[in-house]
Here is the input.
Amino acid sequence: MSILRTLKVDKTWTLFLDRDGVINLHYPKDYVKTWDEFFFLEGAIDAIVRLSQVFGKVIVVTNQQGVAKGKMTEDTLRNIHLNMLSEIEAAGGRIDSIYAATVMADNDTEGIRKPRIGMALQAQQDFPEIDFAKALIVGDSISDMQFGRNAGMYTAMITDKEHSDAVESLLVDYKLTRLSELS
Here is the structure.
């Protein structure tokens, strides 16, 4: 049975998506610094098109401390996101909002960066209909899963590992190898 049917997902649900490693290619120990470095993962756009028809809200939450490190500017990050949205919308998909934590982990005094839930709370403030008990986060890292747990969401981790360690077992409700498996 599919995850969406198991959870009885409908338009009252919210899908939270991490960006790097879920929607686009993730560069380990580096950042997507320009639109030219942004590559959608196989099937990601089609998955977002289908998922945006099922979920009431689709929200991207992404840690982007490359801005604070001077690897890119806020304007460059905004350009990357505008281009990403444009391609998704051209295919018939929808992302309702993007929240990016651009501060360094050591300077996150407001609790914005995942695994803290500042971006989730901001989304809920912007969209009061968001109910975290009816939300699913799809990410590719433990901090994404901690973010989901900390906010009271269901969690789905994109991973190629077959076996979970103890931490993953506590944090991960569902495992996927790519976003398209969810839709």
Summary: The CA atoms of residues 6 and 174 lie 11 Å apart. The first strand starts at residue 14 and ends at 17. The chain has six helices and six strands. The beta strands are 14-17, 57-63, 97-101, 135-139, 154-158, 174-176.
